[in-house]
Design brief:
Layout (H helix, E strand, L loop, with lengths): L1 H16 L6 H22 L1 H20 L7 H20 L9
Keywords: Membrane, Peroxisome, Peroxisome biogenesis, Transmembrane, Transmembrane helix
Main location: membrane
Protein name: Peroxisomal membrane protein 11A isoform X2
Length: 102
């Protein structure tokens, strides 16, 4: 995160020196890149959070398909169900991979 902040400060300094080369689109993509980088690093450092996130993303697809919000074919629904089940089995087999709530 410190590296991202340092790079951002460096870009802002160079943008203030050359205002025609910097646009709103650059600012939006920079924000998105910073967010995705932070998300990736957080999930990489906390495997239980990654496992729970993957399981929840898989679990949400079936109701969205049933409600007609996001249509998927039966193969995709079966695949995400399988991934969700495997993620659940991992948390049972390895209790340290279970997301702890306080």
């Amino acid at each position: 995160m410190e590296q991202v902040i340092h790079d951002k400060a460096k870009k802002e300094k160079s943008a203030s020196q050359d205002p025609c080369g910097y646009s709103v689109a650059d600012e939006e993509t920079e924000w998105l890149q910073s967010f995705l980088l932070l998300l990736f690093r957080s999930l990489k450092r906390h495997p239980p959070l990654l496992l729970d996130t993957v399981k929840n993303l898989c679990d949400i697809l079936n109701p969205l398909d049933q409600l007609g919000i996001c249509k998927s074919n039966p193969g995709i629904i079966g695949l995400v169900g399988l991934v969700s089940s495997i993620a659940g089995m991992i948390t049972v087999a390895y209790p340290q991979m279970k997301l702890k709530t306080h």
